[in-house]
Write a structure and sequence with these properties.
About 15% of the residues have low confidence. By secondary structure, this protein is an alpha+beta fold. α6 packs antiparallel against α7 and α9 packs parallel to α10. About 35% of the residues lie in helices and about 20% in strands.
Length: about 375
């Protein structure tokens, strides 16, 4: 069982609940040591006196506040502990606010609160159920590890959570921090309707289990590839910014792609209905290209008056175009294509297609 990282009491009105505080999240980041290149020698950080160059023991280090001109006010750790507010180890609720009124930008880190002993479970459960029924959060200040936190207590299923919040003066004003804030912009009804149609086509219920750290998986794949002496294929390049002139076309293609993905996933009924509703509001129809081909869709080569051989080649090309870069990289590795680790996805597709054609030709000659 996990051990509480803080223990104290929750006070609201004249009611007191002894609790323990537990971390609600864990870090799955892959951590690396620093090594000198070409060796297995660890590189370590040391506390060094910048004037003498000598290492300083941790016990001899005090805090210093820079007052300018090379002068400092020194403060001992014990002095900070002595002035820390809330030394009674309590979470004092000062108000209960509507949970929806707290802007998500204030939320920082989540902790679980549990009753300290079984005898306190009833009063703990009372606070839990009351917060759940009223959809409110208890706002409180408390001190942990020499720092004071603004917090929100809220109900989450069968447990109380404590959310540490950023103070108002810690949140930056975008108007003073950002170079390019969009000015008030007007759009045609058709443009807004198409954007709404895209949002509705991509609408889905919130299922956090469906999302995972793909970058960490790539790092693990890199480590495994290096362990086995294989090359790792670089990731796809970032997409180009959308040109304002092409905005409507980009929106149209996005809606079509979202609708196709929803259909393939088997969950597109609700999305399709929502997209159809938005399309009705927009008064638009599915854009068509030449000869009835949907705009943005690739025409299928090798059909119509083309021969059977052309159709077969086209199907092979279509199969390659549907592969991801990682799948193409594995195909390139099987074909022993040189320089594959530095290729873009399109270059990999061309190389795999050419190498595959060469291999088939060789096989045909050998068979004859």
């Amino acid at each position: 069982m996990a051990r509480a990282i803080w223990s104290g009491v929750i006070n609201f009105g004249l009611v007191t609940v002894p609790v323990g505080l537990f971390s609600a999240i864990e870090d799955h980041t892959i951590h690396f040591h620093q090594l000198q290149r070409g060796t297995a020698d660890r590189v370590r950080n040391q506390r060094v006196n910048e004037r003498t160059g000598k290492e300083v023991d941790y016990a001899d280090i005090v805090k210093g506040y820079d007052t300018g001109g090379g002068h400092y006010i020194t403060v001992e750790p014990e002095e900070l502990a002595d002035i820390a507010p809330g030394r009674s180890r309590s979470i004092d609720v000062s108000a209960f606010v509507d949970l929806a009124d707290i802007d998500p930008i204030h939320f920082d880190r989540t902790y679980y609160l549990a009753p300290a002993k079984s005898e306190y479970e009833r009063v703990y459960a009372l606070l839990l159920q009351t917060l759940e029924r009223t959809n409110r959060a208890g706002i409180a200040l408390f001190v942990m590890r020499g720092r004071q936190y603004l917090t929100a207590l809220r109900a989450q299923g069968r447990v109380l959570t404590l959310e540490t919040l950023h103070f108002a003066d810690e949140i930056r004003d975008p108007a003073t921090e950002l170079d390019h804030l969009p000015k008030k912009t007007s759009f045609k009804d058709r443009e807004l309707a198409m954007a709404e149609q895209l949002v509705e086509a991509m609408a889905a219920p919130w299922r956090p289990d469906e999302y995972h750290d793909t970058y960490r998986e790539r790092v693990e794949e890199l480590l495994e590839s290096k362990r086995q002496g294989r090359e790792m294929v670089a990731a796809d390049e970032a997409p180009e910014p959308t040109n304002v002139v092409d905005l409507m076309e980009a929106l149209r293609r996005s809606v079509e792609t979202a609708g196709a993905r929803a259909g393939r996933s088997g969950t597109g009924k609700r999305k399709g209905q929502a997209a159809g509703t938005a399309k009705g509001r927009a008064g638009t129809t599915r854009p068509r290209g030449k000869k009835g081909t949907p705009a943005g869709a690739k025409s299928r080569p090798g059909t119509g008056d083309k021969g059977r051989k052309g159709g077969s080649a086209a199907r092979k090309a279509e199969d390659l175009s549907a592969l991801t870069k990682a799948e193409l990289a594995r195909r390139a590795a099987d074909l022993d294509i040189p320089g594959r680790s530095r290729m873009t996805r399109d270059q990999l597709e061309d190389a795999v297609r050419d190498a595959g054609g060469t291999a088939r030709a060789r096989g045909g000659r050998k068979a004859s």
